[in-house]
Amino acid sequence: MVAETTSIFKAMLCCRQRKWNNIILDTDTLSLAKMLKEIWDCPWKLAKMTEEIKQDMKHTGATIQHVFREANAVTDLLANIALTQQEAVQKNYTLQIEKTIVASKLAVEKHRKE
């Protein structure tokens, strides 16, 4: 959960630097979503970071919502590309992203039917 919390922390930092407001954060980590909504208590080792995230969320009007892992595939792909190949992010990943979008939609539809 440290990696997911760190990702949201960095995303909120980016939003604050760019002065973006009313952001909707999606996470496939239900416990993190509940901690940031103050439904669940936070483990002490994440307390400082989650408090900063919550302050940023209040300041920017951001909200967080839980999404199923299948619905989060595109975001996960883009985050992995950004982390592993920062200068290559600007290259053309259109085909890979489109394939992931299609796979994500199919997975969500399959999940809804179950």
From TrEMBL:
GO terms for molecular function: nucleic acid binding; RNA-DNA hybrid ribonuclease activity. InterPro entries: RNase_H-like (IPR053151), RNaseH-like_sf (IPR012337), RNaseH_domain (IPR002156), RNaseH_sf (IPR036397). Transmembrane segments: none annotated. Residues 2-81 form the RNase H type-1 domain. It comes from the Eukaryota. PANTHER family: OS05G0353850 PROTEIN, RNASE H TYPE-1 DOMAIN-CONTAINING PROTEIN. This is RNase H type-1 domain-containing protein. It comes from Solanum bulbocastanum.
